[in-house]
User: Which sequence fits this backbone?
């Protein structure tokens, strides 16, 4: 006969937990398949410019190579940053034009709906409602597998109930900053920046996409305002609760997260040195002084976030409809070029394929695109049923053996 010490008792108590966890993981592997989805994420600050109807955005959407399964496009400044547009009299026509351009670009690459996916039209801006748009998108995004062998993603074309759609794709917008408009139209309104976030569930995997426009400014210390914006977005973004158990309510509750937008981080370099390095195409030399790179290295605000290698020129600030950066001679005054437009990812199960900018000269920013392959877990119902059947049989055997052991006579 022997007696357990305290540490030995603790170790023994943890053994069943570890065994149960290992068995649970082994059991899950029996009925869960992992498949990849191609995700194209793009961001563009369009500077309040309404585009021509025939604007070619194929380069930005990166569809020459292979169409994506999911497109996430984040815009900033679709309407001009003027007082009249910011106090309730905004013109929604640019929204309709952009939607038309996007749909035309995507659909002309796959005109035969019977053979490939087709992207649905959105409602006109006059009756635009986020949940209406969610329902339109949901019919294209929801995939289902009813096979226990291939686990493929099968596209559905039938409409679903609004409750079902709301459970799987939930939008949320959040404002950061303060209005300082006091009625004097001669003073420019401080733009209230913020974010629009979407929570989306694909099979057993939760995605979150966050499009944001952070505080501007290239003075020393302005990056702290941007950090504060990000922290506020993380803190205040709470998706509406749903009846489905286990659906995430906060950004970091999701397995696959993408942050994109005009993040506004600048270069800690002088105007002259920046232009000198740009003329040499010394992107590495520039990137060493990038504020966001330094914040990613610190952790803190961006702990766990990653970004692909930057191999393209700074995306801001250009003269409108020009390939030239703004200079002293321009009306707006000179700005030090910077990579303001960025796309970051968070979480395992995401593999970056490409990270580029598109040479579209419409606004003072260049659009940026990141293409990922994202893992999606799919439950195969038949295999799940078999796994549960075997588990029940094991449980019965275990209970029977314990009962028999209990009934055995004790011997001295």
Assistant:
């Amino acid at each position: 006969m022997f007696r357990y010490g305290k540490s030995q008792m603790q170790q023994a108590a943890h053994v069943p937990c570890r065994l149960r966890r290992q068995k649970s993981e082994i059991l899950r592997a029996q009925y869960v398949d992992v498949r990849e989805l191609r995700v194209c994420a793009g961001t563009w600050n369009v500077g309040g410019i309404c585009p021509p109807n025939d604007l070619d955005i194929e380069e930005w959407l990166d569809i020459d190579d292979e169409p994506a399964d999911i497109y996430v496009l984040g815009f900033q400044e679709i309407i001009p940053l003027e007082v009249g547009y910011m106090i309730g009299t905004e013109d929604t026509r640019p929204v309709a034009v952009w939607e038309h351009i996007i749909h035309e670009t995507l659909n002309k690459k796959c005109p035969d709906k019977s053979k490939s996916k087709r992207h649905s039209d959105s409602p006109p801006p006059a009756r635009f409602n986020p949940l209406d748009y969610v329902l339109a998108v949901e019919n294209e995004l929801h995939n289902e597998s009813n096979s226990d062998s291939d686990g493929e993603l099968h596209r559905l074309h039938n409409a679903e109930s609004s409750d079902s759609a709301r459970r799987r794709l939930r939008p949320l917008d959040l404002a950061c900053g303060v209005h300082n408009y006091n009625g004097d139209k001669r003073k420019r309104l401080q733009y209230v920046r913020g974010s629009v976030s979407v929570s989306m569930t694909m099979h057993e995997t939760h995605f979150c996409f966050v499009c944001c426009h952070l505080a501007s400014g290239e003075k020393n210390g302005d990056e702290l305002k941007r950090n504060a914006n990000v922290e506020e977005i993380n803190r205040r973004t709470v998706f509406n609760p749903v009846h489905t158990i286990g659906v995430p309510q906060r950004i970091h509750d999701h397995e696959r997260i993408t942050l994109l937008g005009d993040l506004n981080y600048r270069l800690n370099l002088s105007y002259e040195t920046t232009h000198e390095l740009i003329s040499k195409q010394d992107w590495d030399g520039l990137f060493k002084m990038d504020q966001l790179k330094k914040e990613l290295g610190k952790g803190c605000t961006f702990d766990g976030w990653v970004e692909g290698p930057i191999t393209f020129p700074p995306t801001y600030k250009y003269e409108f409809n020009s390939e030239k950066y703004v200079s002293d001679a321009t009306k707006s005054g000179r700005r030090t070029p910077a990579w303001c437009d960025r796309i970051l990812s968070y979480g395992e199960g995401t593999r970056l394929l490409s990270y580029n900018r598109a040479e579209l000269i419409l606004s003072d920013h260049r659009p940026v695109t990141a293409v990922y392959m994202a893992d999606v877990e799919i439950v195969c119902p038949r295999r799940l049923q078999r796994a549960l059947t075997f588990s029940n049989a094991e449980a019965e055997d275990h209970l029977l053996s314990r009962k028999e052991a209990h009934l055995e006579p004790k011997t001295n």
In short: Residues 33-385 form a domain with the Deoxyribonuclease I; Chain A fold (CATH 3.60.10.10). The chain is about 30% helix and 20% strand. The radius of gyration is 26 Å. Confidence is low (pLDDT under 50) at residues 1-21, 118-167, 178-191.
